[in-house]
Amino acid sequence: MNGGMIHEHCLNEPERLGRSLGLHTRRQVCVPSCGYIDLTIEGNGLRIAIEAELTSKRVSRDLLKADALFADELWIVVPNAQTARIVRVRLRELNPTKENNDVFVLTLVQAITRLRLCFSDYFPTIVKQKTKTERS
Amino acid sequence: MKRNDTTGDFIYALRHSLLNDYRGRIFARNISLIGPGKVEISHLKKCVKKHRYDLALSPIEPPQLFQGALWLGFEVHNKEARTSIETMSGHGLCEGGSGSGKSTLIKWFTLQLASHIEGSWLFQFEKSDFSALVPLLQWLGVSAISIGPQQLIFNPIQVPTHCDPRVFSARATDNMIRSLQLPPRAAKAVHLTLLLLYEDFGVLQGGSHYPTLFDFRIKIAKSTINPQAREAILDSLDPILMSIGNCLRYRVGWTTEELAKLYIIFEFQNTGIPEKNLLLSSMLVAESSSRLARGLNNRKLDLWIACDDAARLVSAANPSDSFSDLIGLVRSQGISILLATQTGDIAPSILSNTANRFLGRTTSVTDMNAMCGAMGCTAEQRQYLSQHLSPGMFLCQLGQGWRVPFLLRIPRPSTWIKLLGINVQQMQKIRPVLSSTHSDPLTELNALPVVEATEFRNWRPDPAISSQTPTSKGTTPTTLCDAELRFLTVVVAQPCKPSSTYPKLAKISPKRAKAIRKHLIDLGFLREQTLQTNLRGRSAIILEPLQPAKQLIHQLSQRGTSV
Question: What Å distances lie between residue B519 and B55, B63, B461, CA to CA?
């Protein structure tokens, strides 16, 4: 779904970082019979589905879409910690028994940090260069 | 013989305002219409006797001022008090309650000085009775004109004749800081901007194409100076440019050198306080700078300036409006300033810089004590003055010659024609001629060369854009100010940044930016979102521009309005 400016902002930053790390990024990936995933990042044998959410309303659909895409991890990127808490509560309501080990509810900063951590081993030189330039 | 005595007493009583009470006025009317009766004669004698007795016991010595070209008025024994014109070269201060005769004193002195000095500027801040002087001055051979701020053609930042632009820029800066009541932080910005403008217009290289205050405003708006200082300058300047823009939109206006040769009555009664401050101070600073540059020091009096209702200018309680700095600068240059005030709230520096003092009837003893203290009156004299001063009677202290305070009575305006030897019939003959010349009083000044900045004819302070977008609170169109538009522009240009970054980008103070942000959200231009920008701590407030904001900025950019 095409969201507002904050929704776009939550996707732009991970996409930009993914590209700079040399990962394969795709926006609005079609999932048959489920709709579209906002962003997918692939690399190092991992496929991450990223959904930006400002509320907890569409979380159940996000889970379905991620399953249909055979994504290794689903990252639900939210603007702030309060929304993250609400989304986590909603997830627990949907699957009270099962632990969602492959679903992460992250704020934008947390998503960027996790992205760096996940793929820094695979592209160490690029990450080092990036951190150097950031520091300078 | 008895009748002659009564007539003499009657004239004496009238001259000394002894019949000003209700009973006295009835008796005066009876004497004039049907002649004096027993009761009237008895009352007259009582009044005159009491007054003479009071004078005999008066603790104030009569002056020994019998010679001189300047006729001050009458002393207590009804003799003429005269002094030299040079006496008036020091500044003067006149204090008196409403109806004490301050304006009459100014008018009388102006008439007295008319045939001796080159020019006179009479400033009226509240009333408009100085224009009555015009026919009298005309009869005395002096052409006087009465002009308001809309007819004036003056550029406050025009460099006066013979003056170095660099030196004048410092003086003009002080003047603007003082008259616009700007914060100290703005002083350097104003000075720098003035110098840059002079350089841009080639004034520093000797050019005579001067910037106007409009150019100054535009330069300040575009500059990268301290945002608070810039906002303060713009906030003060915009109303002035809107109200008296017609007067200020000249690159070359009337020079004070030319104005100082004329008798001008400046009628500023319908003008705001900042406008009055700016025009008065600018004219004085320009004339003073010009005289200083020409080396005209310790010269005889040739410009007489009088300000009626100048309570605000001399006030000690309100130093930001005070004239005290300026009166200290304009000294020994042949300029004399007389300030008339109603209250005793007088700044010490004003008292220090005024040599001639006049104290009229005051309604408050506290007000009277301020001037009495400055004149060095004894307790006995103060007691006497509090009970015996009447309208038209002043306690006077001169700067030169007779330094002891003395009582002075200004003649009634109705007797001036007779006292000054003006032939009434001749006056009546020339009046129609005068009225025809008065229909265009600026003829003489209009002949002076001026250069108008035509681009500022229909100037508006800023892009007061009317956005037709319906707001969240209603459907009425709203108007955005310059700062709000700037803020909106940066939000549209760089969306989704924390709200703390925008004040710096828009060059607005954070406090003001907060208010602007709330206003724009209310108007439906922006939306607030919270976004976690750090791993820890509170979420930042992110500003998202909505469609009306984008449309408005797009329209502005198409119109080519620089925000």
Answer: 70, 69, 21
